[in-house]
């Protein structure tokens, strides 16, 4: 797929800003509501956000490093790679989403979590992601490559941004369901 770079960055920024607004809204809920689970194996709303925090710690650092060290300056278009596009699109929420397995290191289930700490960390990391999106406007999203959490694979920066933010959207939807 081919995207106009500015339009893609604007779309992704809109997603991230809505995620920040949602987390701010969650500050109005009590701890019991935020930690409530549908069943023993499901995640609470706070566990969904902690999962995203665990990924953001890796991806924000990786994205920042690649932007700061990129030799490739802005291009008006971003050409998605086959695997990167497939991975990003698979993260978009669908009506009947399949549950996906996650790495043990990124699974917050059974963790002792403080809702306020998780929310504040989430908001901080998402604001950092907004800054990275802004910086990425000056970089070629096709030629700049990033590592991903799967060893040996690299995605184009644009695909990594799409993957991370669509993954965030998926789990924001999951958090909303956990609160119903």
UniProtKB/TrEMBL annotation:
Residues 26-175 form the DinB-like domain. This is DinB-like domain-containing protein. InterPro entries: DinB-like, DinB/YfiT-like. It comes from Tenacibaculum holothuriorum.
